[in-house]
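Predict both folds.
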Amino acid sequence: MSNRIMIRRAEKEDVRQIAEILVEDWKKAYRGIMDSGFLDAMSVDDRYEIEIKRYQEYIVAADGDEILGYAWLE
């Protein structure tokens, strides 16, 4: 980490990392609350296909090419 975190609009190249963060966060945050079968079935590839269609609606916190987090702009 370079300690130069930038907040910017998401780009198409960010979508894979957004999908990875989203799936990991859901599996951690909702375990024991939501059906485990649903959470276990979540995949980055499936999420990527959803997020690639709407990535322009996100802002990201980025350190170089690494996406640290994202927020939805609605």
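Second protein follows, with its predicted structure tokens after the sequence.
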Amino acid sequence: MADSTYRVQIYGTRLCGFCSAAKRLCEQRGLPYEEILLDQDPERRMALVEETGWRTVPMIFVDGAFIGGFQELRGLINQGDL
């Protein structure tokens, strides 16, 4: 069972399939998350690109640390690290 003390933030867009998959995965594992939509906030998205070096969404943070996208989230969950 997932440890609900993790703070997961998923930065994404409404039409992003990988964003939806990341949210579904969190829901299936009982892992609470905060969704931050970037559709109407290009400045925030560019700031995240500069901060992370990551150009695609989702941009996922766990406890304030950038971990990557959907595949990285799935890997951490599957390894039991999250």
